[in-house]
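Standup notes, structure subgroup. Blocker cleared on the coenzyme A input:
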Amino acid sequence: MTQELIDSSTQPAEPSQPQFVRWFRQVAPYVHAFRGKTFVVGFTGELIKADALNTLVQDLSLLSSLGIRLVLIHGSQPQVNEQLQAKGYQQQLTQGITPIDAAALECAKEAAGEIRLDIEAAFSQGLPNTPMSHAKIRVISGNFVTAKPIGVIDGLDYRHAGQVRKIDTDAIRHSLDSGSIVLLSPLGFSPTGEAFHLTMEELTTSVAISLKAEKLVFLYENPGVTDGEEQVIPELARLDADALLRNQTQTDHTARYLEQASRAVKRGVARAHLVPFALDGAILLEIFTHDGVGTMVVEDTLDDLRAATIDDVGAILRLIEPLEQDGTLVTRSRDVIEREVENFSVLEHDGIIFGCATLNHYPEEQMAEMACLIVHPEWQGGGEGDLLLRHMENRARNLGVKRLFVLTTRTAHWFVKRGFVQGGVSDLPKERQAAYNRQRNSLVFMKRL
Ligand SMILES: CC(C)(COP(=O)(O)OP(=O)(O)OC[C@H]1O[C@@H](n2cnc3c(N)ncnc32)[C@H](O)[C@@H]1OP(=O)(O)O)[C@@H](O)C(=O)NCCC(=O)NCCS
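Run returned:
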């Protein structure tokens, strides 16, 4: 999907019909993959202060209407500080863990109440001309979080600043099952009824872990995790994220969120995202585009190359079908693919299959045919074809194959550039010669492994 199609602030022009259809088709696999999955979204009080709440709520309503189960956690630091100032108190909350005295706790409760009402109001508006006009979204809040005091650290008493002790996952799941969005404030209660102020980032992470969420998303002020040239890193393996944290390459603010993202992924949340809220539609871009707009932390890198299983047959067929129709590939029935599925490898990104290839082994001749090498058109040109080829070469080597061949009608140059040389039908294994389709007249290319 091209970013400019959704980022209306930079591309006001209407998409053309073919662009629109292309965009719609590209989004469809994500919609399918994320239906029924739980996303836990934490956003800072700065987002609300920057008047970005209404647009975020529209985007979240859209996600909810696509069947994504949403738990939202709002921050409140600037709003608490405003309350403190308005009441004439000197102290201000700093980011991260900060001591909370009685006045700050009162202000935190008041700020949470106001923000909660603003969010509920935003979800209730049936404004015409918004993407979610006429949608009815229910928001449920409740005493879902048990907290404990942080206590005294290095002689400093954190008083009403707390940590998560337990999340009532059953109650949250029950609300999600009813189709509602769950909204939590950064406050928790001890079993004796005492209130504690929590950090939004710790609460969001704890909720995501306890619900075993598919995604944790932080919407915050910074662009995401950046490299030495200030470029946003789209994807980070957790171990690399931990190394960046050790080397202190990030701002304190990003480091705090990255630390939580790493914790979440380590404890079983599939993906954790750091996304800038300043960009219109940032959460949609992050979720529905291949590279996203912020940083995604995963346990392993996201582009996963693996042997196919029977569950991948549908996705493989969807990749092959357009190429069969235009004559690039020979037709293979579902039966054949089901039978031979273990010969396939697939390239998966964030749960979406976007590339495949298969290997037919001829052990007697120590040869193998690589076929059905496909990268989805949207992701071609990024080196994925090369990645698949190298993977298939390794698979072949592990089988003791000495020569890998391909039959192609339209992709000859691609293979030649990658070390294949043209051969003839007589170079093929006997069994393959017999099955050679002379009408199709494919060219034969070989590579020594
Ligand atoms: C062939 C294919 C798998 C390559 O995937 P990919 O991810 O785009 O590959 P890479 O990013 O590693 O390589 C891209 C390069 O190959 C070139 N290329 C793509 N298709 C090509 C073709 N049919 N013939 C020659 N070169 C081609 C691109 O122009 C690009 O060149 P550049 O690097 O000089 O800009 C992909 O184009 C595809 O799925 N094609 C349709 C199916 C097919 O023909 N399969 C092979 C038959 S078995």
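Discussed briefly. The chain has two domains: 3-298, 304-448.
Next: hand off to the docking folks.
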